[in-house]
Amino acid sequence: MSRRAPVQVSEIDQFDVVIDARSPSEFALDHIPGAINCPVLDDEERRIVGTIYKQQSAFEARRVGGAMVAANLARHLKERFADQPADWKPLVYCWRGGLRSGSMVAWWRLVGWDAQQLAGGYKRFRQQVVASLAELAPRLRLQVLCGPTGSAKTRLLHALAEQGAQVLDLEGLACHKGSLLGAVPGQAQPSQKAFETALYTAIRRFDLSRPVWVEAESRKIGRMALPQALVDRMRSAPCLELQAPLAERLDFLLRDYAYLGDAPEQLAQQLEPLRTLHGHEVLNQWQAWARQGQLAPLFESLVTLHYDPQYARSQALHFRHWPQRELLSVDSLTPTALAELAADGLARRELPTPSGNASYSSSS
User: Residue 20: beta bridge partners?
Assistant: First the structure.
């Protein structure tokens, strides 16, 4: 059995399984991708031990907590890991690589498994995520797909991915469509830390010598804030603007947001933040259409009065090379049309590097 020093983050992939020994609530907030949660102390036990530590003594907290830890480890041995072979090689981590993961590693080693402890625990992994995003984001050869609301940018990204293009689907990672009405029904957004972990996982798989397609986004997608290094890279990247007839865009929105009609009162309340911007008369009409389930006139008015003017102002302000953008006009936004567009060479194209943008290279 190996007796080496605690394992580093770069060595995680060498193990049969990664075990998160923290409580379920800590695990839910964020965890190392692929890890399984086997708490040494659950949330309530952790609360009890913490209270004893503060109100009585560290010794009493360790005594009570030790009994809980032993019971939980015994349960994991009898249930979760009863069938693991003698050569099983688990990696264990907790918050800082301390007592919780150390206790599990000690027990597993007594059984005979070559268990190892992650140096620095989740905290060290989190530091790796933040540092890697700051280091890798400026090196991405981003190609930014722009277009007004309803131009099916996300669907085109998916079609490009199916054709083998490298795609960074920020809205998919954030579980939000990026607009005022962008919440995905029945799906909560991840925590900020979990979003950044998913972003880190996606980016580190890219071939940095090849282009990466990404949709134009603001600094936030719902509640998720994009790392500043990624925002800066997007702002300096070459752009392609997808243009489609208004009627096609409205048809697409009616398909893509049809579920909004299932909760008319909720939709009406979601529009309320626009009252100060558009006034009572306009907002009252929008809310009336929402409550009546009349999505067609509502979407047309929202697009023409709110989203399109906002888009026209924001693109030139946020994207440094907006005047040099490449235009791509399409007549249809059906799934078939988007698939054909992606297959017709778009997935294999690299947009020209904007003039005067010497810093835009894979080595910058």
Answer: 37, 93
Contact 115, 90 (CB under 8 A): yes
Contact indicator for 243, 272 with CB cutoff of 8 Å: no
3-state secondary structure of 326: strand
What is the rounded distance in angstroms from the CA atom of residue 73 to the CA atom of residue 96?
19
Write the CA distances from 301 to 50, 94, 247, 261, 278, integer angstroms. 55, 52, 12, 16, 11
Q: Residue 153: what are its φ and ψ, rounded to 5°? A: -60, -45
pLDDT tens-place values along the chain, 364 residues long: 555 678 999 999 999 999 999 999 999 999 999 999 999 999 999 999 999 999 999 999 999 999 999 999 999 999 999 999 999 999 999 999 888 999 999 999 999 999 999 999 999 999 999 999 999 999 999 999 999 999 999 999 999 999 999 999 999 999 999 989 999 999 999 999 999 999 999 999 999 999 999 999 999 999 999 999 999 999 999 999 999 999 999 999 999 999 999 999 999 999 999 999 999 999 999 999 999 999 999 999 999 999 999 998 899 889 999 999 999 999 999 999 999 999 988 888 899 877 655 445 444 4
Report the catalytic residues.
94
